[in-house]
Each structure stands twice: as structure tokens, then as C-alpha cells.
């Protein structure tokens, strides 16, 4: 099928959904989000390109990984070096994995040596919801937010104390179980959750001609825990704590070959906070947190490398209601430290930041302004800003225009990794910098949301692969179209991404980015039954910067079903890649073929 035909089919699907699905519950399509402005705001009042993944969608994901779930959202693609538990990356609007920020309950998360988040260690069983902000957000969150921000919220408690549990089993000897207790009232709320996941997986290297190929299956196991506690001693005052900790082991193929090559990786994010309404118009929030990323690699039982990242973060945010709009004033301190078997010339850095923002609405006009200054102990100061204007044309139609700047700080590997014969880090690297302009229009009515966003992101001083230098420039531009709606027992949606990500000097496409992709889903409830399906199509990509190694496009079909036994018990099943399509997101690395997962969930309402 030619690409043009695929576009026509995607457009027809979009029109069909828009015309056939009518009226539904607004709360599910118009949730309150925090990430886009750092203040609680309804999606319908935002002038940003935002998606929220709620607990219902997470539960329908079955054994799907968090990376695969994210890749079904507009503007996002992913790569994985093998099956579940292996190294993976998330691209937002064509930006690399290093060019986006990951937060867990407001705390920065990831490795400061690689500059990437460890997605494979985040289990969906511990996640309440995910907020995705597409577009540069350094004026809100600082370094690395060139492509956007993904914030993960762990599970919280409300209502009468009650247990929840889930267990299931599937192909590749995959098992996934979790159990927890949560509850809350006006004075206190809490949640405690634990989980365990294990799978035999597939061989990480699929190509038999590769020097690293080993036909054994490279399995993965992960245990996890999350908890939250919030106490409200008086109206307008809350003190709380959150924690997420996981412990996982992944097996790989290696060069030279090893009988048993594995990585043991523990990650955690925890914080305490105090939110206080000091005046009727002034709310102050102080949050102190830490995230850790500990990686140990072993070959036949012998340790070959250790890498540890610790990120300490202190944030004081003030939200002030003004006669017109709401102001934001905040100060942040971030300290990043690395250690292990690699001797870095410098092993820590600190960032001190001040930021201010203002959002306001007047009649049909909306405005958001943000300004931030980051002073980094390694390379000095950077100032970023953003301005967005929105206009409500009718009760259903609104549009926005925005312009923003962003930057990415070099990683410790890029700056200080020792020379092992192939070149070392470059301490003279400058931060990458970006300038983004975008325009969007949204149609929203009861139970339906249709949007179109065009973006143009110019990135300069790009750091090439190795040895690192600021030599590249790139242009990331494209259009995202998306629709989501509910009508009685029906629920569905479709998104289409058309993007062009090019190296300005060579004209080559950036590695592992498809220029076209589409995802659609449709489900229907029949009394106690819910049945649904998904179709994901991703165009071809190139595995290398020179565009010599082509990765073919692929289409995946997934099916899922739920049966509510009674008000508390649900049986569920999911089939991913049901037509057993073979594809690669990274050259030579294997992926799961057709797979199924069946389980039971106890979740009192």
C-alpha cells in the first residue's frame, strides 16, 4: 500500500469516528492536569498540546510496557533493544530521548550519565495516570525539555479503605501481579502498592549473523513498591510524602558472547512536600525529593560496570491569584551526582533556578507567559522563555499560537567519560538550544475532542554521537491530528502524525524517527462485557545518521476484552500483535511476536 493511500485511510477513519461517536461524560475527556502550567488546570482551559493517560487505559494495556503505551499517543515514538526490560527510548515530536524530561510525582527521574530515563523499570501497576506535554518546556522545568515533559503520578488513595489486587499470565511465560490497599478522608489519605513482573522474553539480538547473537531467551523480572501519604491538619494545608522503588534484572546478548550477561538496575523516586494556603490568594508549596538510578552489569557472574546517579531537588513554588489571572513564582535547586567504576573528571553539578509565570483569561482571550533562569555549575547560566496566546472562537472552537525556547545540558558521559581508545568526553561542550513555534486548533464539545497542531522546532549546537562535539543543526517540524470521543457504550479515537526531522547539514533524516504514523482504537460495552481493538501503523525509519540502514514500516493489531463478574471483580484478556508481525525498532534487535495475556482484577469501586 502506498503512503498516500495510508493517509487517505487515516483521514477516512478520523472522519468516521468524528461523525459516528456522539455525547459522553466530559470529566474523562476534560481532566485536570498539572504539567502544562505547573498549576492545576482543566484541559479545556489549556493552550498546550497535552495528553492524559488515565487508570482505565492503563488497566486495558495488559502486559504492554509503559514505552509501548506511550508510543500509542500523538507525537510519540519509541525504540527498544530487545523485549521487555531492555534499554528503550522515547521520542517526543522527533526530539531524542535525552531531549525530554521525565518526572515522577514532580521529582526529576533518570540517569545523569546517559541523560535518559530508565523506562523499562517503571511498572504500569504502580501508575495512577500519565501527563504528556509536547513542545519545549524549559521555561517551566529547565534543562532537557526540548521535546516535552512526561510526568508520571503514582497511585493515591480516597474513600473507605479497600484492597485492590490483580494477577495474570500470558505467552513467553509472562506473569504480572500486584496488590495494594488505599483510602482516605478529609483528614488523611494513603496508598500502599506492591507488584512483581516476570517474563522469559525473546532473544535480545534477533539477527543470526550478528557476532552477539545468542539463541537463548533474554528474560526480565522486576519487583516494585509505591506509597503515598497525605495529611490535612486544617483547611488549605496539606503535608505529604510519595515513594516509588523498583528492582529489576534484564538479560542481554553481548560481544564477546557470554553464557550469562545481565544488568541489575534499581531505581527510586521519593519526596516530601508541604502545601499551604497562606492567604486567600496565595498558596505556597515546598517539595524536597531524591531520585536514584543504580545500574550494575555482570558477565558470567563477574561485575563489569557500575553506574549510580543521585538527583536531589528542592522546589519552592508560589501560586498567587491576581485581579487578572494567576501568577507563578518559584525557586529550585537541583544537585546531580554520579559514581561507580568509571572515573569522571567531575562527578557532580548543581543547578540553581528562578522562574516566573502568568496565565490569564479575558473574555475570549487567553495568555500564558513564562520566564526561567538556570545557573549551572558546569557551564553557566541559561535563560528561556515562552509566550502563548489563545482565542475562543466559539464555545466549541479555540486556537492558539506559541513561541518558546529550550536547551539540553550535556550528560556526564558526553562531558567527562574517559578515553578508552575511541575518544572520550568533551568538557568544552555547550548546551544544545532550541527555538519552537507552533499553532493549534481544537474543537471540543460534550464527550468529543478533535485537535490539530503544527510545530516547527529549530535545534542548534546538537551534540553528535562520539566523540561528542557541538557540530550539528536539525529542524523538527510536523503536524499532529487527533480525535477522542465517547458515545453511550462506544469509545474511540485516532491520531495521525506527519513529521519531518532532518539534519540541516546533510539533509538526512534523524535516526530511528518515522515521518508518518497512525494509531486508532475503538471499543464497545455490552452490559458486563467490554470489547475493543487497536491498530497502530508506523512508517519506515533509518537506524543510522547516514541513512544507510533502513528499518521497514510496520502495522500492529491488538485486541482486548473485559468481563465484570460483579461490582468488584473483573476478568480481562489482551492480545498484542495478533498477526505476529515481525518488525524492528533498533537494527538486529528482537521484538515480541503475537502474544496474549489473561488475568483477574479485584478493584472495589
What does this structure look like?
With 605 residues, the chain is mainly beta. It is built from six helices and 33 strands. The protein has one domain (3-156, 282-555, 581-590): Maltoporin, Chain A. Helices cover 7% and strands 57% of the residues. The strands form five sheets. The chain has a 22-stranded antiparallel barrel. A five-stranded mixed β-sheet has the order 3-8-9-6-7. Residues 1-26 have low confidence and may be disordered.
Q: Into which percentage range does the β-strand content fall?
A: over 45%
Q: Which bin fits the share of residues in helices?
A: under 10%
Question: Span from first to last CA?
Answer: 46 Å
Structural class comes to mainly beta
Stretches where pLDDT is under 50 for at least 5 consecutive residues are 1-26
CATH superfamily: TonB-dependent receptor, beta-barrel domain
- Number of extended strands: 33
Q: Overall 3D geometry? A: globular
Protein name: TonB-dependent receptor
Signal peptide: 1-23
Family: Belongs to the TonB-dependent receptor family.
Subcellular location: Cell outer membrane
